[in-house]
Amino acid sequence: MRAQSELETRILGMIEPSAKALGLDVVRVRVTGSRRPTLQIMAEKPDGTMDVEDCARLSRRISPILETEDPIAGEYALEVSSPGIDRPLTRVGDFGKWIGHEVRIEIAYPVEGRRRFHGFIDVEKDGVVTVTLKEGGVATIPVSEMSKAHLVLTDKLIKQAQAAGGGAEIDEDDEIEGFDDIEVEEDIEDVAMADAAAHIKDEE
Fold it and tell me: By three-state DSSP, how is residue 77 classified?
């Protein structure tokens, strides 16, 4: 689920070594839009944190690689972000970190006519997730069969994020978007030009 298309898988292979060199894990790669696509890279540290400087460092590190490899034809925007509070769950092991939290899951192929599940994470073991469904009953779903999965924004999830982040406060009148969804968005050509200018300046 970290990458869905062949293009996204290719990009993941390009950037993952650089992310690891910075001590970061790539959570998800997505290419969206057609006229001027957006390449979204979600990443985090092993402890689940990701601040603005981390996003900027990763953006600077992978921009020259993307410029050289040129995986997306034409102009596109590069967006580097943290996973956010209601984060996507994309890897084996992700679900086990969020036991008891609400989750929405979609599987690639329907089972008994059903593709979508909404409930609470009970356990993850050997790449299989058990979820207590909101409408009743239990579903057991292998991570390998999922096409999408993400946490649902709840008071419980917000409180856990606040505790992990040192007690940040949220105004109920404020939109939750952006509270923990740090991102750096740049035009890939502008990044390359800025890096080149900085390199020239260093040599003077």
Answer: strand
Adjacent-strand bridge partners of 111: 114
- The alpha-helical segments, DSSP class H, found in the chain are 6-21, 52-69, 155-164, 188-203
Using the structure block, give the residue that is written with the tokens 């800025």.
194
Question: Domains of the chain, with CATH numbers?
Answer: 6-83+181-203 (3.30.300.70), 95-164 (2.30.30.520)
What pTM, to 2 d.p., does this model score? 0.81
Contact 100, 155 (CB under 8 A): no
Residue 178 φ/ψ region, left for φ over 0, alpha for ψ in the -120 to 50 degree band, beta for the rest: left
pLDDT in tens, 143-182: 999 999 999 999 999 999 888 764 333 333 333 333 344 5
CA-to-CA distance for 72 and 85, rounded, in angstroms?
29
Specify the 3-state DSSP secondary structure of 19: helix
The helix or strand, by DSSP H or E, that contains position 194, with its residue range, turns out to be helix 188-203
Amino acid at 153: L
